[in-house]
Amino acid sequence: MLILQNLSDALILACTYILMAAGLTMVYGVLKVLHIAHASVYTVGAFIGVLVFSWIGNFWLALLCAMLISGVFGVLIYRSTYFYLLNAPRTVPLIASVGMFVMFTDLLQKNFLMGPYQRAFPAAGAGLPAIQTTWLSLTPKQLLILLVTLGLLVLLYFLLTRTRLGLSWQAASMDREMAAAVGINLNRSIAANFFLGSALAGAAGVLVGVYNNSVFATMGDLPSYKAFIIIVLGGMGSLPGAILASLLLAIVENFMVASIGYVLPRDSIAFLVLILMLMFRPNGLLGRE
Amino acid sequence: MSSGYIVTIFTFVAIYISLALSLNILTGYAGQISLGHAAFLGIGAYTSAVLAVRYGLPFWVDFLAAVVITGIIGTILGLPSLRVRHDFLVLATMGVNFVVVSVFKYVDFFRGAMGLVNIPAPTILGLTFRGGAPYLTLTAIYALLTLAVCWYLSKTWSGLAFHAIRNDEDAAASVGVGSARYKIYAFGISAALAGGAGSLYAHFLGSVFPDNFVFVESIGMLSMVIFGGIGTLRGPIIGAIFLRLMPELFRFIQDYRFTLYGALLVLMMLFQPMGLLGKDSWLWKFSTRLLPGNRTSMREEIP
Questions:
Q1: CATH label, A2-123+134-280, candidates 1.10.10, 1.10.3470, 2.60.40, 1.20.58
Q2: A-chain residues within 8 Å CB-CB of B88?
Q3: Nearest to A9 by CA among A204, A261, A250, A242
Q4: Is B269 in Cβ contact with A103 (below 8 Å)?
Q5: Fewest CB atoms within 10 Å of the CB: A226, B82, B166, B239?
């Protein structure tokens, strides 16, 4: 079944998009900043993952370390820049973000970090089996991506809806000043938001690194541009929207490539979808403003 | 460092001054932030290159065609800005950049990643401008022309309309400024000027490749505008000069120049968000205080 095979490919692609876009849309929800340096966080995650994996050899430990360190990296980014720019015009944090992106991309390409070459990430499927049924066939790697993404999404759902921290994010994304006025510790809540969003990006980096068996310094660029498209499609700052848009984009990309071939490369299809959609629904699929 | 090398660097500086100034019309004056200006540079360069290489047309035809065609495409691409605001527009312009580059890359007419090569040197009134000081003069004249357009715009009703739209689109509309019309103007003029710079760029290099016009280039141009001082005439000029020369000046830390470039942008945003010579920047305040007779002219800048 070619169509079903396409669908499961699309699903796996969507999973990596979701993890990347979830972090971005969370940051956007609270700070209203286009966090371009998110790409660097993703790359750092993949890099840490590959380092720990080659050192210890356990995928799950590598994933955990990558998430922790990219989370901390995200918080550092927030505390060193965005924290001071909370009340500045929107261009200011945007340019600061661009600056960080340029800086980190350059630094990561240096030999004492990742170097200008690709590294293999031979984690295979972390010991998971392949699934082969009549309606679904997944390789171990694909199953791994699916399970990790689902696990993280469930965790995220509970954090957002069942904890004080999650409620404080929701409040902060509605109205930052009002949230502060009713006694929410904004600093702590935004920092936690960055930690979680960046940890998700780190996980995405590790999973994509394993899936393609390659990790390199500029691997974050394209996924982060796509994540921007996704958070726009889904409505800025809306998490369910981001998930829906990830699925939609992955399906459209896969079917366009499968059906009309390479008239345009898949990556510009995404931008074409974005521009067309903005013309008709300027606030995104599930956005309200 | 030969003198030819220095002339080449300054030729690029002049081209980028025109680009930064043209982006400033859109972003600084009309407040429409664009992360896709390299697309307009690319459209201008490719228009010129196609006409020169494929059809053998003379330089002045290419140049004018680049200005007009890029202007028209810019006007069309400005249409989304009527529906889309703020961050959505930033992402839409970024998308335009990606789509334009991939059209150059994957449509056979533009010879894909091989690029268009052997673009002849421009000939004006029997004089051939191949590299060196003559070409530098040509690009400098174009930069001055762009500056004149910007200066003229800042003095007219359109300039005031841009200013009003930037500050508050709804308020501008409520006092009768047709924001749609002026946004489209800003896109058109900005793109047309960038197209001219693209034509000069193509004829200077003698070849164009899709990778010359990628998203990172757009980031660079926006950085020039913001680094120098957004919305002013002096800012983009200083920004273009400084950011183009910086990698050359800091050649001794060759390997780390982009790290430094990024760090500089971050520091700038943290400490001087209005740019090096923007309104309220300490350097500008300091230098205006030094000039005699300027003591009282601390009036609000009207771009």
A1: 1.10.3470
A2: 232, 236, 278, 282-283
A3: A250
A4: no
A5: B82
